[in-house]
Write a structure and sequence with these properties.
CATH class: Mainly Alpha
Largest sheet: none
Number of domains: 1
CATH topology: Methane Monooxygenase Hydroxylase, Chain G, domain 1
CATH superfamily: Ribosomal protein S20
Distance between the termini: 58 Å
Strand content: under 5%
Number of strands: 0
């Protein structure tokens, strides 16, 4: 266990940030799954913009890599454009 006050606080704040990051990442993954199961283009288009926004936010905060966000956005956009 840490001895310094600052390192004890750092451990606490790291745990809080980790929980927040995991929650945001899991929420984004769930939104991606919801988008993938959508079969109607008019329903998927507004959902796509929300998912892209979520991915950009995760990449900006370094929760996921920027290239992973870019790859996901590209694949999801292709998917939505292929819907009828």
């Amino acid at each position: 266990m840490a001895n310094h006050k600052s390192s004890i606080k750092r451990i606490r704040s790291n745990a809080a940030k980790r929980l927040r990051n995991r929650y945001q990442a899991k929420t984004t993954r769930s939104a991606i799954k919801r988008l993938r199961t959508t079969t109607d283009k008019s329903e998927a288009t507004p959902l796509l913009s929300k998912v892209i926004s979520m991915l950009d936010r995760l990449a900006k905060k370094n929760i996921i890599h920027k290239n992973k966000a870019s790859n996901n956005k590209s694949k999801l956009t292709k998917f939505v454009n292929g819907l009828k």
